[in-house]
Amino acid sequence: MDIKTVKIETLTPDPDNVRIHNEKNIQAIKASLEKFGQQKPIVINKDNEVVAGNGTIVAAEQLGWKKIDVVQTELTGVDLIAYAIADNRAGELAIWDEQKLLEIMNTLQIDETIDAVVTGFNLVDLDELGVAFESTDIMEEWSGMPEFDQEDKTAYRSITVHFHDEDAIKNFEKKLELSLPKKAKYIWLPEIIIERFADKKYTDVENKK
Q1: Which of 70, 92, 114 is the last residue of a domain?
Q2: Statement to judge: residues 102 and 77 lie in one domain
Q3: Number of CB atoms found within 10 A of residue 206's CB
Q4: pTM (2 d.p.)
Q5: Are 56 and 42 in contact (CB under 8 A)?
Q6: What does the pLDDT look like over 189-202, one tens digit per residue?
């Protein structure tokens, strides 16, 4: 196996990848890469397309990595496609020995140099396994935090509208006397401002007076 280091920008994600890497998955991979580094190479084909390790590439890019270790497979055609699926499926077919896992995770919790979350298990997962960790007193954590009123912005009624073509969109806009943004996925009638947690931050108001 000839392992080499290449620039991530030279690699192309697998266009036929059937594995969806959600945010939880990517965060787990990032945590592992940050703590342990890259411990196994990405598998690529002769065209520099990623066959196995697409999630690792995404996580590495988010961490700001410019280079990564890869190994080029000699597989081609249907063998290459089958391998890409098998690489993901094989791990899914294994099952956890929950008792041993519980013992190991509890051991990791004692070691202050290891954050057990880097294993891919978040606090909810650990709680379901019965792993002992310091519980959080929600009321205590909230003590001293500012209070606010959360306005109810749930929709009274929602409908989905499908447009056959551009003319249908224009007719719809004309009838409702509105203009739909090109990338609009939903609208509010009447229009309201949707507030998100990402838009919020705490500030020290008293020190700004």
Answers
A1: 92
A2: no
A3: 6
A4: 0.55
A5: yes
A6: 777 766 655 555 55
